[in-house]
Amino acid sequence: MPIRRARLLLAAVLLLTLVPSAVLGHAELDTISPADKSSGPPPAQIVGTFVQNLDPAKSNFRIVNAGGTVVAEGGKVDPASPRRMTLALSPLPPGAYTIRWTSFSTEDSELAHGETTFTVVAATPSPSVAPSASASPSAEASEAASPSTSSPGPSASPTGGTGTPTTSTSDAIIPVIAALIVLGALAFWLLRNRSRRVG
């Protein structure tokens, strides 16, 4: 009897150990460029890396502007690095954008998707004032007093970002329910054996 009880406990522990790997067994986003919630000049391309190898036919990026219009769509998976996908972009006007990504893993045939955001800011033109030989002293003084402006560069932000994963919650709930059922059955069995011994 103790050997059978030990086997059931071992099976329950193994099941609980496998639950996290089942929940995380998708090609989730690892890093994205431009980084999530970053701002700067228009990016030339979107570059994303994922935690599993991608199926090029079922994985893509979709770039949506603030009005909900899709401004770019597609993606190319690098054959030499199948966890990396890129999408070349035409110059984007200033505004807020959302990157909606979809990935299909060739390792476990699981579909995942999510989104990140970035903002394109307009570059401030630098003043092009040529010094004049006949400039008055007051004009020269005002020019010296006024600080020069420069174009803002892209804000420093981490290159990583998984965004907001929107994978189906049923994928995560099913293994948890199965684990609870096994533990409940094990508890019922142990209680029944104990009541028999007492009786």
Report on the structure:
There is one protein chain. The chain is α+β, with helices and mostly antiparallel strands. It is 31% helix and 29% strand. Strands 2, 4, 5, 8, 9 and 10 form a six-stranded mixed sheet that branches. A four-stranded antiparallel sheet has the order 1-3-7-6, with no helix packed on it. Strand 6 and strand 7 (81-88) form a beta hairpin. Helix 1 packs antiparallel against helix 3.
Mean pLDDT across the residues is 76
Net shape = elongated
Number of helices, counting only DSSP H or I runs of 4 residues or more: 3
Oligomer: single chain
What string, H for helix and E for strand, traces the elements in order?
A: HEEEEEEEEEHEH
Radius of gyration: 29 Å
Q: What percent strand?
A: 25-35%
Major sheet details: 6 strands, mixed
**Distance separating the two termini:** 17 Å
The total count of strands amounts to 10
Topology:
Layout: H1 2-23, E1 29-33, E2 38-40, E3 45-50, E4 60-65, E5 70-74, E6 76-78, E7 81-88, E8 95-104, E9 111-120, H2 137-145, E10 164-165, H3 169-198
Helix pairs in contact: 1-3
What's the short story on this structure?
The chain is α+β, with helices and mostly antiparallel strands and 199 residues long. It has helices spanning 2-23, 137-145, 169-198, and strands spanning 29-33, 38-40, 45-50, 60-65, 70-74, 76-78, 81-88, 95-104, 111-120, 164-165.
